[in-house]
Amino acid sequence: xxxxxxxxxxxxxxxxxxxxxxxxxxxxxxxxxxxxxxxxxxxxxxxxxxxxxxxxxxxxxxxxxxxxxxxxxxxxxxxxxxxxxxxxxxxxxxxxxxxxxxxxxxxxxxxxxxxxxxxxxxxxxxxxxxxxxxxxxxxxxxxxxxxx
Amino acid sequence: xxxxxxxxxxxxxxxxxxxxxxxxxxxxxxxxxxxxxxxxxxxxxxxxxxxxxxxxxxxxxxxxxxxxxxxxxxxxxxxxxxxxxxxxxxxxxxxxxxxxxxxxxxxxxx
Lengths: 148, 110
Hints:
The structure holds 2 protein chains of 2 kinds. By secondary structure, chain A is of the alpha+beta class. Chain A contains 3 helices and 5 strands; from the N terminus they run βααββαββ. Chain A has helices spanning about 20-35, 40-60, 115-120, and strands at about 10-15, 70-75, 80-85, 125-130, 135-140. A 5-stranded antiparallel beta sheet of chain A has the order 1-2-3-5-4. The longest helix of chain A is centred in the middle third of the chain and has 22 residues, at about 40-60. Chain B is of the alpha/beta class. Chain B has helices spanning about 25-35, 55-70, 80-90, 95, 105; strands at about 1-10, 10-20, 40-45, 50-55, 75-80, 100. In chain B, helix 1 packs parallel to helix 2 (about 55-70). Chain B starts with a strand and ends with a helix. Classes of the chains: A alpha+beta, B alpha/beta. The interface between A and B is medium-sized, with 27 and 27 residues.
């Protein structure tokens, strides 16, 4: 972030239900595209939101759709920072070992792949436990238009 | 997500438009299962109109490739955009699945 630059912010709270993934991605795409974020970056973030929401709804909330998930996106000229918070039991999604992506087709399983994708498509992926919430922060560095 | 299927020679060409994610994967899986139940042995999934794919979508491809492989058939995939291609690279799916550039290339020798 350039020094002194005020980030543009999108904040959103949704119920912990799988169909809300569409709403989150729709709101994010509208916010990001209006501010010139490349479509490929938007799609990458859509994948990340899909994986993280799916994990929270399926595991942290175990289908309890009345629990809330908080989103905050901060956009500056050189980075996009997304913060996703749930109030499920303490769980660090990045603590597990990555799946073995060198196995053959027959041996491959899908478990753990979502988090592996999140970690690798983003430039930073951080977990914090803060005041009874799991807080995941993911960062994508943005190329400056004049540096291409 | 929208799925359209056409038969070209002996190949079922399945075009998936929109996104293949947590919420759309079950419908895509059902569609591909139905095709195989009806006897399809060669399936080409064309992703030219796909925005992104998440691990739920990768699971659909994995299940389909395994089932086709077990019955002597095969799965080919083409038309990956930048984001989908990156997900394929990171997951190792670009190695375990048969990925082609265009539909024309994918159809050759299929």
